[in-house]
Design a protein that fits this description.
Blueprint (H helix, E strand, L loop, with lengths): L11 E3 L2 E3 L3 E3 L10 H12 L4 E8 L12 E2 L6 H12 L4 E7 L15 E2 L12 E2 L2 H21 L3 E6 L4 H6 L14 H4 L1 H13 L5 E9 L11 H9 L5 E6 L5 H4 L12 H10 L4 E3 L6 H9 L5 E3 L2 H5 L3 H6 L14 H6 L32 E5 L3 H12 L3 E6 L7 H5 L10 H12 L3 E4 L7 H5 L5 E4 L3 E3 L20 E2 L1 H6 L6 E6 L4 H11 L3 E5 L15 H10 L3 E3 L2 E6 L3 E6 L5 E5 L2 E5 L2 E3 L2 H8 L1 H7 L4 E4 L9 H14 L1
Parallel strand pairs: 3-4, 3-13, 4-5, 4-6, 6-9, 7-8, 9-10, 10-11, 11-12, 12-13, 14-15, 14-17, 15-16, 17-28, 19-26, 20-21, 20-26, 21-22
Antiparallel strand pairs: 1-2, 18-27, 23-24, 24-25
């Protein structure tokens, strides 16, 4: 039985512009800059059925930049032409393209321009610099610059513009008492704090054409002490301006509460922002859009029908599956790749590294890989895949899409590989979508999947299988030795029974024990194991890094992890490496002073290094000449953690890449 989701696909008028449906991509960065890659990325979402796409935050003046991140630009005339090409590419698929006008204020580093960041007030930035409090001449210049940038957007052919009045950037720095402590006509009362925003609105309104839509992205609840709230001034601001704009694109959070703004699945369940937005939707006479990890068409339809939203925003979900609307409309909901909320996308782009996605390895590769397009092979091959983790299942899926005859053998009872363990850790259950979607696709594509002990493959099993192409995707394992990048040596005493791997520690069901975790991973496994053990044990967390969980800083999970572990009484010992494990104690050595500290322990857990399970692959390669001359085997490959243990996203990409090229 299918559901056409009629409400989702009703057209919607945003001022003078009719949007073909209620599903839109809110502005989000990708560090692609302007050009062919950006154009292909946005156009793919239009091809996939997103009725409205809003191009990412675009610089309106040379006084703000986020070097080394490469965002959108509207501060010079040279930026018009590449954006016109992007507009045309989106229009080719029947969608509309707006652009977000942005000035970063104090949150922009200005590493490129080396100009002092501007802000409403001289408040702390959290970095080594303090911004300049804008003088009246500065205010006048920036207000004019918003209008000039809007005129460039008009020349580029955009269907509309959206002011970035959110996330603690310049406009919201004037609006919010958390940032604004001015005592002139731009500070103090709400009326005064709104003055800059209203002047910018007037400047932009004068610059755009009558057939362009005009709205704003606005943080209705800043989620910080002393900031705007959805039941206070945040709501009052949207009510005061009301239908002076054609639409509102609402969300929550600023830089100081970024783990609420772009909430990872470890911290927030799906649809988590709606409770902050729905009252504004009811209060306004113009359409309101909202986000908050909306991934399920049934939820999206319900939010529209209930009046909580007028249009449904999907940033991360549009990355995970740019064809979400098309699949929903055609009743192919089980083919939707749902976002897992791991935030690897934003973790890369905010560091100036081109955006990627765990679920969708074609992100950024749209010029050569259409996410729903596969070049069919002229001569199908019989392929054996050994290992059913992220790399193996992705390769098998892509190879089958291209017309090969694929068998996948996994020695465990279920597919998933490392996903099964990592997805069982606290807050990470949605990560199992990496496994579940691929398992569903393998079934749809009639891939022969064999699991359990009878599917375990050794050298002779592969040799006699009859496959023409063999792909080894046997994953990796946690080293039991505690080797780190700083020592390259096993920890003395590593081979004792009370030294555990992460999986052993979770399976052991420890209680009332003294446990030391020795970590250099700094990411989801070390955090998840610590969260699992913290409540029932006396836990000490030792790491040679300056702080724990450094990899979660950019995925916005760190606050949740630390809050949980500090509440459970975990002791953190940074800047130390474990140098010896004894029967009832461990010795930790400071990496800078060489001073030692002894901790009493019952168990030690190492989350320091993963190694490849590559024995089968190496044996096959050693005998490759014999195999290719005496059996049907033509090619032997290894993919994923079997080659190099990395992130899940890297394993998926590696499997996808080989599938495209086989």
């Amino acid at each position: 039985m299918t559901n056409s989701y009629d409400t989702l696909f009703e057209p919607l008028e945003l001022g003078p512009v009719e949007i073909p449906n209620r599903v839109y991509q809110p502005p989000h960065g990708n560090a692609y800059g302007l050009g062919d890659q950006q154009t292909a990325f946005r156009a793919e979402k239009a091809k996939g059925g997103f009725g409205l796409i809003i191009q990412e935050y675009s610089q309106i003046h040379e006084s703000t930049d986020v070097t080394p991140v490469d965002p959108g630009f509207l501060h010079t005339d040279e930026t018009i032409e590449p954006q016109r090409e992007m507009v045309e590419a989106v229009h080719d698929h029947g969608s509309k393209l707006f652009v977000e006008l942005w000035h970063g204020g104090l949150t922009a580093s200005n590493y490129g321009s080396r100009q002092p960041p501007l802000s409403s007030s001289q408040t702390p930035s959290g970095n080594y610099y303090t911004p300049k409090e804008m003088e009246h001449d500065d205010i006048e210049e920036i207000v004019e610059a918003f209008g000039t940038a809007a005129d460039r957007a008009r020349q580029a052919g955009y269907d509309g513009v959206e002011l970035h009045a959110a996330h603690g950037y310049l406009i919201s720095q004037f609006l919010s008492p958390f940032y604004n402590d001015r005592d002139d006509e731009y500070g103090g009362s709400l009326e005064n704090r709104m003055r800059f925003f209203e002047e910018v609105i007037d400047s932009v309104d004068d610059a755009i054409s009558d057939d362009m839509a005009f709205g704003a992205r606005f943080t209705i609840d800043e989620r910080v002490e002393g900031g705007l709230t959805a039941d206070g001034e945040g709501l009052e601001i949207v009510e005061r301006i009301g239908d002076d704009l054609d639409f509102w694109d609402l969300d929550i959070g600023v830089k100081q509460s970024i783990d609420d703004m772009i909430g990872p699945s470890r911290r927030h369940s799906k649809n988590y922002q709606i409770e902050f937005i729905e009252e504004a939707t009811e209060a306004l006479d113009v359409p309101v859009g909202g986000t908050g990890r909306i991934t399920d068409p049934r939820d999206a339809e319900r939010l529209l029908e209930s009046g909580a939203l007028d249009m449904v925003g999907m940033a991360r979900q549009s990355i995970a599956d740019p064809h979400w609307p098309k699949k929903a409309r055609e009743g192919r909901v089980d083919q939707i790749r749902e976002c897992i909320g791991c935030n690897i996308c934003v973790s890369q782009s905010r560091q100036g590294i081109p955006l990627i996605c765990t679920q969708n390895p074609t992100v950024g590769e749209e010029q050569r890989w259409g996410p729903e397009e596969y070049e069919q092979v002229d001569e199908p091959k019989g392929i054996l895949v050994v290992g059913g983790g992220p790399a193996g299942t992705e390769f098998a899926r892509v190879a089958a899409e291209r017309g090969h005859i694929v068998h996948l053998n996994e020695k465990e009872r279920e597919l998933g590989g490392r996903i099964n363990f990592e997805g069982s850790l606290p807050g990470l259950s949605e990560w199992k979508r990496v496994r579940d979607w691929r398992e569903t696709e393998l079934d749809r594509l009639d891939v022969a999947v064999h699991t359990g002990s009878r599917a375990e493959m050794e050298y002779d099993d592969v040799r006699t299988y009859g496959a023409e192409i063999v792909v080894i995707a046997t994953g990796g394992h946690w080293s039991e030795k505690g080797v780190t990048s700083g020592t390259h040596q096993p920890v003395l005493g590593w081979d004792q029974d009370h030294v555990l791997t992460p999986a052993q520690a979770v399976d052991a069901d420890l209680s009332d024990e003294r446990v030391v975790i020795f970590d250099e991973e700094g990411y989801n496994v070390s955090a998840g194991v610590a969260q699992t053990l913290a409540d029932d044990n006396d836990l000490t967390f030792v790491t040679p890094r300056t702080s724990a969980f450094q990899e979660t800083l950019h995925t916005f999970e760190r606050k949740t992890i630390y809050s949980d572990l500090y509440s459970a009484g975990v002791d953190f010992v940074p800047d130390h490496t474990l140098t010896q494990v004894d029967e009832e104690s461990v010795t930790a050595t400071n990496v800078y002073s060489d001073e030692t500290t002894v901790f009493d322990v019952d168990h030690v857990v190492f989350t320091t290094m993963r190694k490849s399970n590559d024995d089968l692959y190496r044996e096959l390669k050693r005998n490759e000449e014999t195999l290719t001359s005496e059996t049907e085997i033509e090619e032997i490959h290894a993919i994923g953690d079997c080659v190099s243990p990395r992130r899940i996203a890297d394993a998926v990409y590696h499997g996808h890449e080989l599938g495209r090229n086989t």
